């Protein structure tokens, strides 16, 4: 198996950047388009199994706090059809960095997220809302 093929890294880098732009712009439909139908997502105070659950959850959420920044983004390619993206994220006024990881797979429709996980260090909050609308 080849690791970190330049073509795979370039394609996933572009897909991840487009995903991040859609996420920051609160373009729910575009964000949903980056997920595979059977994707599993674990959030800070939520979880979704499949695109239907994620669609309901995303449509009920407001946008992210302004000023989201990423740090230490890493993309690792595995062969020609799988990549793992990890990054830290933060917001102005806070030194807390959340963690985000995504598994991207090349499907017939293009690169899609099949698994995602978002977390924060225990006992802190970035101000991102939970599914109930409360800050978590």
Written account of the structure:
The chain is of the alpha+beta class and 136 residues long. The protein has one domain (6-97, 108-119): Nuclear Transport Factor 2, Chain: A (Roll), CATH 3.10.450. The chain contains 3 helices and 6 strands, in the order H-H-E-E-H-E-E-E-E. The protein has helices at residues 6-24, 28-33, 51-60; strands at residues 35-42, 47-49, 69-78, 82-90, 98-107, 110-119. Strands 2-1-6-5-4-3 form a 6-stranded mixed β-sheet. The longest helix has 19 residues, at 6-24.
Biggest beta sheet summary = 6 strands, mixed
Judged by helices, strands and strand pairing, the structural class is alpha+beta
Number of strands: 6
**Which CATH class?**
Alpha Beta
Helix content: 25-40%
Mean pLDDT, all residues:
91
The figure for the number of domains is 1
Question: Which geometry do the CA atoms define?
Answer: globular
- Counted by DSSP, the helix tally is 3
Low-confidence stretches: 128-136
For the CA atoms, what is the radius of gyration? Answer: 15 Å
The order of strands across the largest sheet is 2-1-6-5-4-3
What is the architecture at the second tier of CATH?
A: Roll
Annotate the secondary structure layout.
Blueprint: H1 6-24, H2 28-33, E1 35-42, E2 47-49, H3 51-60, E3 69-78, E4 82-90, E5 98-107, E6 110-119
Parallel strand pairs: 1-6
Antiparallel strand pairs: 1-2, 3-4, 4-5, 5-6
């Amino acid at each position: 198996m080849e690791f970190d093929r330049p073509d795979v890294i370039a394609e996933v880098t572009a897909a991840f950047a487009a995903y991040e732009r859609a996420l920051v712009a609160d373009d729910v439909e575009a964000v949903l388009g980056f997920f595979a139908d059977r994707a599993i997502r674990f959030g800070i105070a939520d979880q979704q199994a499949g695109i239907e659950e994620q669609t309901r959850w995303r449509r009920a959420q407001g946008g992210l706090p302004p000023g989201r920044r990423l740090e230490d983004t890493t993309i690792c390619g595995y062969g020609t059809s799988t990549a793992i993206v990890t990054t830290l994220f933060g917001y102005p006024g806070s030194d807390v960095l959340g963690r985000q990881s995504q598994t991207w797979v090349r499907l017939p429709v293009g690169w899609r997220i099949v698994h995602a996980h978002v977390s924060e260090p225990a006992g802190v909050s970035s101000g991102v809302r939970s599914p109930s609308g409360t800050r978590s």
